[in-house]
Each structure stands twice: as C-alpha cells, then as structure tokens.
Write a structure and sequence with these properties.
The structure is a homodimer. The N terminus of chain A is likely disordered. In chain A, strand 2 and strand 3 form a beta hairpin. The first copy, chain A, is mainly α. A three-stranded antiparallel β-sheet of chain A has the order 1-3-2. At the A-B interface, helix 3, helix 4 and helix 7 of A face helix 3, helix 4 and helix 7 of B. Chain B binds a DNA duplex through helix 3.
Amino acid sequence: MTDAAVVSDDETTERPDLTQVIREAILDAQFAPHQRLIEADLSERYGASRASVRTALLNLAGEGLVERLPNRGARVRAITVDEAIEIVEVRIGLETLCARKAAENLTPTDADELRALRAEIEAAIGSADLMAYSRLNQELDRRIRDLSRHGTATQLLERLRAQSARHQFRLAFHPGRAATSAPEHIAIIDAILAKDPDAAEAATSAHLSGIVEVLHRME
Amino acid sequence: MTDAAVVSDDETTERPDLTQVIREAILDAQFAPHQRLIEADLSERYGASRASVRTALLNLAGEGLVERLPNRGARVRAITVDEAIEIVEVRIGLETLCARKAAENLTPTDADELRALRAEIEAAIGSADLMAYSRLNQELDRRIRDLSRHGTATQLLERLRAQSARHQFRLAFHPGRAATSAPEHIAIIDAILAKDPDAAEAATSAHLSGIVEVLHRME
DNA sequence: TGAATCAAGATTGTCGACGATTTTCGCGCG
DNA sequence: CGCGCGAAAATCGTCGACAATCTTGATTCA
C-alpha cells in the first residue's frame, strides 16, 4: 500500500521532528485522553532517546496538548465539555476579530478564492457529504485567519483548535448540525466578500454562539 | 531543623523552579529583548545543570517569553509595537468576555472587595502616584479575571500580559495616560458592581480601544 | 583587493547512566 | 478482614560527555 520500503526497520531516512510526530499521533487519537505518555515507551516506539522524547513532550505541554504532572510524567490532556464551551466562548472574541480584519483586508484575488470556497461548501451541502463539509469548515476558518493577517489571534486560535479537535469533530456529526451551520457559514463569507466588518463580526458571533448553545445542551 | 543561617553561600536551601527564576529575570529586564540565552551561561549563573536550564527554556518558549531558533539557541522574545497592538486587540475580545462573566457571577463579598479596590484606585489618582496606579491597574485586571471564573480566557490573558509586560509598563507612564484611563477603569468597576454585563463589556471595550489608539500613535 | 574555502571555536542536540520521587504490592499487626 | 508499613518496581529529573551544527575568522587564489 505504501509507495516504498522505507517504513520498517531502517531509520536512516530523515525523520520529522518528534514533536510533530507525537502531536499528530495525539490528534489522530492514537493516544486517548488522559492516557499516560511514558518517556521510556515513546522512546522505544519512535526509536529516539529519552531526551528527545522529553523535549517533544515539553513542546506539546506548551501547546496545551499534554499535561505534565511534576514527577509523575505526562499525559494527553482531556478537554471536558465545560472547557470546550469556554474555548468556543474565547473563539467568539478571536474569530470575530479575524473576520473583521479579513473584511477590511480583502483583495480581489482573495475574494475569488473565497467565492470558490463558498461554491465547494454549497456543493458539499447539496450532496450531504458531512465529511467534506467538516473539512471545508476547517478550511474556511483557516482561510479567514490567513486573510486577517493577525499573527497573535491566528496563533491562539490554532492552539485552541488543536486542543478541542476531538470536540469539534464530534460536533460536526451532531444531528441536524450541518443544516443549521451551513447558512451561517455562507453568511460569514458573504459579509467578508461585501467588505462589511460589522456584518462579518455579527455573522461570526451568531455562528459561534449557536455552537455554544449546542454544547450546553450536550452537557 | 532550624532555618537560620542558610541564606548566603550554601545552596542547600530549597531552590525555586528554574523556569520561574528565569521568567522573573526576563520580566525584571535583567535580560534584554533579543538577548541570547546561552544554556551554558545560565547553567553556571544559576548553578544548575544544562538539562535543567534547557527544560526551563522550553517551558518559557511554550509561554511565548523566549524564542527558540533550531540549532541556534534561545533568546528573549522581543515584542514589536505592531505585536503589542495585536495583543491589545486580542485582549479586547478576552477581557470583554471576562468582564461580562464577572458581572454575572458577582457575589456580595466580591462586590465589597471590588469597592475597596476602587477606593484604592481613586486614592492613587488623587495623590498622583503613578507607580501605585499602575500596580492597581494590574490588580484590577487580575481581579476581574478571577471573578469571571473562566479558566481558558484567564490563562490566555496571563500569557499575553507576560509577553507585553514591557509595553504595558511603558504605557503606564505615557503622559496624560492616567488621567484618561482612570475614569474608564472606574466605569468598568461600576458596571460590574451594577451586575450589568452589557455595560461591563462596553466599558472594557472602550478602555482597550483607547489603548490601541495610543499605541498606534506611538508607532 | 575581494570572494571562496576551510579550519577552529562556540553552542545546541542527543545519548546513556545515575539518583530522586512516586507508585505498587506484599506482609504483618490489630 | 482491613489498615498501615516498608521494600521493590516504575518512572521522572539531573548530570556529564559526546556528536552535530552553526558561526567566526584566517588563508588562499584569482
């Protein structure tokens, strides 16, 4: 299935940063929430020294993906529903800011790309392809962050997204969720395309407030 | 186990976490922005092994206080004025959220403490004690964060505050700044005391927007 | 003179080992 | 039978040494 015989025993191929490898393992749910990440185990599993594993775990702790209990090691950080709600509440502040800036900064080229993205989203909705729709939502969020050219907000949003990846994923398949959020996403896109910061902020705020509501009911 | 005569030369006293020591050194401006933090130097300076220093630097990198350039070591992260503006823009979103929650959660006991704090602030203004006023501003921000009981927002605000400590400090002594911001702070307190989330959000937003303005002019 | 090259120095990255701390588990005592 | 107690295991924290990498400065050649 893979394209070459490089996977197995030989480690001579360039190895990507351990931090990234473990980060993706966590986001891929190869490690469960609250699972202990024992340095010696990871060390053997990835063929690196304990010091390297340690460095990676320190990095991931800084990103909020793992917790480090003094003298008791690291474990995958588990986000409760309450925390997921807090995260979305914070996202309201950050994403409305980005939406505002995106509307202000929009260039004709950006507008074309955004229109293309809108078309894709509408197509995904039309064919009821939840998986594609979920992916496009993420893509839209990322696109708006980029357009905002606001490094600080972008960085914090990226952190929060990683931390709540599991919850975001669950939410995407919540019954009836797509039908509600789709027009909200379209509204956000249109407000940005219209270069209307106030409308972009309002549409973003409305969308995320809806998510907070849903999460509260799930609690 | 007497605790006398242990302070001077002997290192047998419990040592506070190196991360905290170096963090405070950075915030105290013992290390200048962009100054390189060489592991061997810090190791000798604080009488710890290089591994411990390394751990501390990784922690501080996670907090955004130092930058780590691959294979080229760590240095104190320098915040430009543009970044300082971005940080305040983000604070608008986060602190309005906290002010809102604080107004909603306020208990009679909290209200008493808040009134005491207001009295202190008014006293500092009356005596034109800029140093005390600056300290009380920080205290007020912290108090509102606590009252909000919003862990996620609190954590992010704490990070941002540390990163922009230098700029916040400079701003506090900007000519005429105290006269402008004092009534804004009082307005925020009163809105929270009135348990009026909308007013608290508006007052906080107005205050921080003013700071953004000033920073823009300083640029 | 000036650019390319390469050697020496400085600094970080990685490693295996040892010591410290926490957890686990068996054992005796009430 | 349960509860404390202590030894053993598991695991993290620290250390010194070495390897890899980047930087600096001298040297050579056109």
